[in-house]
């Protein structure tokens, strides 16, 4: 298991939290959004899933992953 | 038909727009959110529906109707 905290722009409300956490969950990973910090902490099994695919899932929801 | 523009607090993204416009539509009225102005313009038939019921529907979505 790997845990990475991403800086993400454009998250503003609980709907955003749900859409990001839900999209990452669909990949079989876990995400926890911190709205005030503007971060998403993802936990994933790096033998099943790549960090890039998680970033893509977040961007597909309409947000910018900064790092 | 009556048209009223309400000042609403807490709307921050397109998810908010959808939840408010959808909730008002379910009442059989029409709503148009202006995110940057922080307003919701509602159009409704005052013989079928009250402005108060529209305000309640918006508040049930988690927003504060100021006037
Ligand atoms: Cu949002
Ligand atoms: Cu929102």
Please describe the topology of this protein.
Two copies of one chain form a homodimer.
Chain A: E1 2-9, H1 14-26, E2 30-34, E3 39-44, H2 51-60, E4 64-65
Antiparallel strand pairs in A: 1-3, 1-4, 2-3
Description:
Chains A, B: Residues 2-66 form the HMA domain. Chains A, B: It is found in: Cytoplasm. Chains A, B: It holds the Pfam family HMA. Two copies of one chain form a homodimer. Chain A is α+β, with helices and mostly antiparallel strands. Chain A has a single domain, classed as Alpha-Beta Plaits (2-Layer Sandwich). Chain A is built from two helices and four strands, in the order βαββαβ. In chain A, strands 2-3-1-4 form a four-stranded antiparallel beta sheet. The longest helix of chain A has 13 residues, at 14-26. The two termini of chain A are 19 Å apart. In chain A, 25% of the residues are buried. The model of chain A has no long low-confidence stretch (mean pLDDT 97). The structure holds copper (II) ion (2 copies). One copper (II) ion (CU) sits between chains A (12-13, 15-16) and B (12-13, 15). One copper (II) ion (CU) sits between chains B (12-13, 15-16) and A (12-13, 15).
């Amino acid at each position: 298991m790997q845990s990475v905290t991403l800086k993400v722009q454009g998250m503003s409300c609980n709907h955003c939290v749900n859409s990001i956490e839900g999209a990452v969950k669909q990949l079989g990973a876990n995400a926890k959004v911190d709205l005030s910090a503007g971060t998403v902490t993802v936990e994933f099994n790096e033998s099943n899933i790549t960090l890039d695919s998680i970033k893509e899932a977040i961007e597909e929801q309409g947000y910018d992953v900064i790092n």
